[in-house]
């Protein structure tokens, strides 16, 4: 077993833990944001629906800002107010509602898990973090802890990006915060700190603190309710006035939670010395040619051809303009020719590369991909018979396009 970390990185004094809980919860009661899922979790008598509502909100909030999520959440809960309603929806409907929220597999997995609750668990949500994680596909440790504590009052901690930041600052943890060793310690800490009488509120308070006060770049330490317990704050205050042993690192090089000896405390950064992460891999560059095929529809309005992506991989099952992944460093002429060949399959007749009109380039950043869409357009006369042996495809008006399950990147195109 790894050696226990030095005491300064832990919460071990019961009086301090009590005081921190009290300060944090009092602040939360005064300052918490009004969010629709919070209102529902606090007032809904049906335990299944409470768990479902928190689950939907937590999945939407992964990788997405609260302000964006609110509208999606409200529309989702209006359309599928219960697990049973969601279980009956089609994947196409789920993708349509999710369009624009990003990370599309989240919606798909949520619906698959809802189907499992209905078909295999007699419609009853599991009530503990352990069961939620074990029984629901796609529900990880964080989401399970959030649902169990907020909806069912289980005294279990949660660790998300906001909590990582707050805890690393509270306890001057400067080792790589994405490493398993640090993450394990943070989970231990979250489980020690959580208030057993109000676990859901405590967890939400800790996350809210990270989202609104202990923010990444310019934390509002002056307004922070847990400042008296914050070692990063103490170090910023006293760090330049030695000797103050309890604000120093534990010892050069041998503490698994202190900053590495090669990257010591930088007084110009203050509390934002924490947390620290290993450098991310740069995103992979991809180049895709895409063609907006346009025809005059039967009522005279323009229509556009969209085709469905494969059911797995990036943007699975979403619709897009006919597109072709290009090799890097192709000459423009060659790109055009390859796209023309690709379109021929859709059109069922030769397409002249010269007929493709270059419109421009659109850049879209996915989490790990830097995607450049090279956009062309082509007007089509007469009817085009779509080959049913190819991926599903259809002609849509502009309004229909926007109501379809298309990604933000395609809307940019
Ligand atoms: Fe974060 Fe500052 Fe509060 Fe410490 S005092 S927890 S750094 S906001």
TrEMBL record:
It is found in: Mitochondrion; Nucleus. The keyword DNA repair applies. The keyword DNA damage applies. Residues 60-212 form the HhH-GPD domain. One of its GO terms (molecular function) is adenine/guanine mispair binding. Pfam families: HHH (PF00633), HhH-GPD (PF00730), NUDIX_4 (PF14815). GO terms for cellular component: mitochondrion; nucleus. SMART domains: ENDO3c, FES. It catalyses: Hydrolyzes free adenine bases from 7,8-dihydro-8-oxoguanine:adenine mismatched double-stranded DNA, leaving an apurinic site. Its EC number is 3.2.2.31. GO terms for biological process: base-excision repair; mismatch repair. InterPro entries: DNA_glycosylase (IPR011257), Endonuclease-III-like_CS2 (IPR004036), Endonuclease3_FeS-loop_motif (IPR003651), HhH-GPD_domain (IPR003265), HhH_base_excis_C (IPR023170), HhH_motif (IPR000445), MIG/MutY (IPR044298), MutY_C (IPR029119). Its cofactor is [4Fe-4S] cluster. Binds 1 [4Fe-4S] cluster. Its main location: mitochondrion. Keywords: 4Fe-4S, DNA damage, DNA repair, Glycosidase, Hydrolase, Iron, Iron-sulfur, Metal-binding, Mitochondrion, Nucleus. Belongs to the Nth/MutY family. Involved in oxidative DNA damage repair. Initiates repair of A*oxoG to C*G by removing the inappropriately paired adenine base from the DNA backbone. Possesses both adenine and 2-OH-A DNA glycosylase activities. Adenine glycosylase active on G-A mispairs. PANTHER family: ADENINE DNA GLYCOSYLASE. This is Adenine DNA glycosylase.
């Amino acid at each position: 077993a790894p050696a226990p970390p030095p005491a300064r990185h832990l919460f071990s004094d019961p009086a301090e833990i009590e005081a921190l809980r009290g300060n944090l919860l009092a602040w939360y009661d005064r300052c918490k944001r009004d969010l629709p899922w919070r209102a529902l979790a606090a007032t809904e008598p049906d335990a299944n629906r409470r768990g479902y509502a928190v689950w939907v909100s937590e999945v939407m909030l992964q990788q997405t800002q609260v302000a964006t999520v609110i509208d999606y959440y409200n529309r989702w809960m209006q359309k599928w107010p219960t697990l049973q309603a969601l279980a009956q929806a089609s994947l196409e409907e789920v993708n349509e509602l999710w369009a624009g929220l990003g990370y599309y597999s989240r919606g798909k997995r949520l619906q698959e898990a809802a189907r499992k609750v209905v078909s295999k668990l007699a419609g009853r949500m599991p009530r503990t973090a352990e069961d939620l994680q074990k029984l629901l596909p796609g529900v990880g440790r964080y989401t399970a802890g959030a649902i169990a504590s907020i909806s069912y009052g289980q005294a279990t901690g949660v660790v998300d990006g906001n909590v990582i930041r707050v805890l690393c600052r509270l306890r001057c943890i400067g080792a790589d915060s994405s490493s398993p060793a640090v993450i394990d310690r943070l989970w231990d800490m979250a489980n020690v700190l959580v208030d057993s009488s109000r676990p859901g509120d405590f967890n939400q308070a800790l996350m809210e603190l990270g989202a609104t006060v202990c923010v990444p770049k310019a934390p509002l330490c002056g307004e922070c309710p847990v400042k008296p317990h914050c070692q990063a704050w103490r170090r910023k205050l006293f760090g330049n006035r030695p000797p103050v042993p309890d604000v120093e690192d534990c010892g050069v090089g041998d503490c698994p939670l202190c900053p590495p000896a090669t990257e010591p405390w930088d007084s110009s950064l203050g509390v934002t010395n924490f947390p620290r992460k290993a450098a991310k891999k740069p995103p992979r560059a991809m180049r895709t040619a895409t063609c907006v095929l346009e025809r005059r529809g039967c009522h005279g309005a323009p229509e556009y051809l969209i085709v469905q992506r494969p059911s797995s991989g990036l943007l699975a099952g979403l619709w897009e303009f006919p597109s072709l992944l290009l090799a890097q460093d192709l000459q423009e002429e060659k790109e055009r020719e390859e796209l023309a060949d690709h379109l021929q399959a859709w059109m069922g007749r030769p397409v002249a590369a010269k007929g493709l009109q270059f419109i421009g380039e659109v850049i879209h950043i996915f989490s790990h991909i830097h995607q450049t869409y090279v956009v062309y357009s082509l007007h089509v006369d007469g009817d085009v018979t779509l080959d049913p042996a190819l991926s599903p495809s259809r002609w849509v008006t502009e309004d229909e396009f926007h109501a379809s399950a298309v990604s933000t990147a395609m809307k940019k195109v």
